[in-house]
Design brief:
Layout: E1 2-10, E2 13-26, E3 31-43, E4 46-53, E5 55-59, E6 64-75, E7 80-89, E8 94-105, E9 108-117, E10 124-133
Antiparallel strand pairs: 1-2, 2-3, 3-4, 3-5, 4-6, 5-6, 6-7, 7-8, 8-9, 9-10
């Protein structure tokens, strides 16, 4: 398919809107592969961040997402999260990875391995090898 757009709702509130230039649908596996991936995240119908990646995989049975390759999440305040693989857990409403992450907010930089966060990057929990540089 070309030029797709999918919306995920919970109790009539939009949680995310996925769009991509092209997608392949695997009905038997209940899986959609989209590239390049663009996802807008919402909390209580308020836009909070945008995720982009080279490839996105939507597991239709669970509404979980997987983003791969040049993954970036930019929240509406301009904070940027970079990694190579990122997952959206539909049940817990979090993004997470076990890979290296870099978070940039202005001149402040935080890095580590493994992370869980809300999609707006208001609450970020980096699991291992945490390093940071804070500019005054």
């Amino acid at each position: 398919m070309r030029g797709i757009r999918m919306q995920n709702l919970r109790v009539s509130a939009t949680r995310w809107v996925l769009s991509a230039d092209s997608a392949a649908v695997f009905r038997e596996k209940k899986r959609v592969e989209a590239l390049p991936l663009h996802v807008d995240f919402f909390e209580e119908d308020r836009h909070v961040s945008t995720l982009t990646a080279d490839l996105g995989i939507l597991l239709q049975a669970t509404d979980d997402l997987e983003a791969r390759g040049n993954v970036r999440v930019v929240n509406d305040d301009g904070t940027v999260l970079k990694t190579e693989v990122l997952f959206w857990d539909h049940t817990r409403s979090i993004i997470h990875t076990e890979k290296f992450v870099r978070i940039e907010s202005g001149e402040d930089v935080l890095t580590g391995v493994g992370m869980e966060a809300d999609p707006g990057l208001d609450r970020v929990d980096i699991k291992n090898s945490i390093r940071g540089t804070v500019r005054d």
